[in-house]
Amino acid sequence: MTDADTLFFFDGRPAELALYEAFAEKLQPLGDMTAAVHRTQISLKNRRVFGCVSMARVLRKALLPEHFLVVTLGLPYPLTSPRIAVKTEARPNRWTHHIVVGDASELDGELMAWVQEAYDFANR
User: Fold this and answer.
1) Mean pLDDT of the chain
2) First vs last Cα of the chain: how many Å apart?
3) What's the pTM?
4) Helix (H), strand (E) counts: the chain
5) Least CB-packed of 1, 13, 26, 110 within 10 Å?
6) Across the strands, what pairs with 53?
7) Which H or E element spans position 112?
């Protein structure tokens, strides 16, 4: 069941809400974590924030699918994949990666392995 804050965050965006709910379901095996809804993102946290979900335009509008989420993850190294829309070294040994997800099929093993790595990295 989706809480009221999450429903408000996705108000008028049912396709994005469905993507988020599919992603949230895949987060269940990670274990102890919280999702905090803010004005522009939903932060994912264990000991520290390990990622977030937003609808930020990290690419030109023409390159984005009609409906999408951006999954942002923090890792100790840069990922090399065409799936990474943007990556930056926020501080030494802390890389922020933005991954555009336009369909539930993109919530695959590769993405969830990155999520697991980010979860473990934040839990150190």
Assistant:
1) 96
2) 30
3) 0.95
4) 3, 6
5) 1
6) 42, 71
7) helix 109-122
- Using the predicted structure, report yes or no on whether residue 64 has a pLDDT greater than 70: yes
Q: Tell me the CA distances in angstroms from 23 to 39, 89, 93, 121, one per residue in order.
A: 19, 25, 26, 19
Which residues 6+ apart lie within 8 Å of 66 measured at CB?
15, 102
* Domain-wise residue ranges, the chain: 4-122
Q: Which CATH number fits domain 4-122: 1.10.150, 1.20.120, 1.10.8, 3.30.1460?
A: 3.30.1460
C-alpha distances in Å from residue 111, one per residue of 47, 97, 122: 21, 11, 17
Q: What is the mean pLDDT of residues 55-66?
A: 96
Cα atoms found within 13 Å of the Cα of residue 40, Cβ hemisphere only: 3
pLDDT digits (tens, 9 = 90+) for 76-114: 999 999 999 999 999 999 999 999 999 999 999 999 999
Contact call for residues 89 and 47 (beta carbons, < 8 A): no
